Amino acid sequence: MAPKPTATPTPSICPSILYQDAKGAIRQLTEAFGFTEHAVYQDDEGRVVHAELSHGNGMVMLGSRGTGGKFDELMAVGGPTGVFVHVDDVDAHYAQAVEHRADVMSSPTDREYGARDYLVRDREGNVWSFGSYRPGVTDPPAG
Fold first, then answer.
1. Pick from 123, 135, 116: which is nearest to 30 by CA?
2. Which long-range contacts does 108-115 make (Cβ < 8 Å, 24+ apart)?
3. Which of 81, 102, 108, 136 is the most exposed place for a label (fewest CB within 10 A)?
4. Exposure of 73 by Cβ count < 10 A (0-12 exposed, 13-18 middle, 19+ buried)?
5. Lowest mean pLDDT among 59-63, 64-68, 128-132
6. Would you give the DSSP letter of residue 103?
7. For residue 93, what pLDDT is reported?
8. pTM above 0.85?
9. In terms of Cα–Cα distance, which of 59, 78, 72, 57 is closest to 124?
10. Other Cβ atoms closer than 10 A to 7
11. The sheet that has 58-64: what strands, in order across it?
């Protein structure tokens, strides 16, 4: 699948995550967490070797474990990843995740620094935080 054109600038930082079941991860991230599939490339065996999913002006890249590439080799001993994603309506986003039976670790919570967020694990243990905090715009939490 060729990349879809985008109206937003290319993000300068993109978390990269490897999954045992990358197709299942894509399904969960798009259906439960509201990501948009930008590009998915598969090898001859149907494994996802590279995918790009967007959310707002951010993007995450992902692929399948066990493809034999250098990144796959280096990530073989890596643990779960934690990723934060800004959403405008935390409660509506949370309701969507719950509707799709996501593994919620904490329900929406108001933070002392003015943000609201919740935590969820994806199908392979990575922790995603979805919240109203805007890195680079919102004042960071005090120390």
1. 123
2. 111/141, 112/141, 113/138, 113/139, 113/140, 113/141, 113/142, 114/138, 114/139
3. 136
4. exposed
5. 64-68
6. E
7. 97
8. no
9. 78
10. 5
11. 16-19, 58-64, 48-55, 36-42
What is the pLDDT of the chain when averaged over all its residues?
A: 87
Return d(Cα 82, Cα 94) in angstroms, integer.
17
Helices vs strands, H then E, count in the chain: 3, 8
Find tokens 């509506």 and name the residue: 92
Place of tokens 């930082």: 13
The residue whose two tokens read 């800004």 is 86
Q: Which two tokens stand for residue 16?
A: 């990269």
Q: What's the token pair of residue 15?
A: 């978390």
Residue whose pair of structure tokens reads 């969507």 in the numeric block: 96
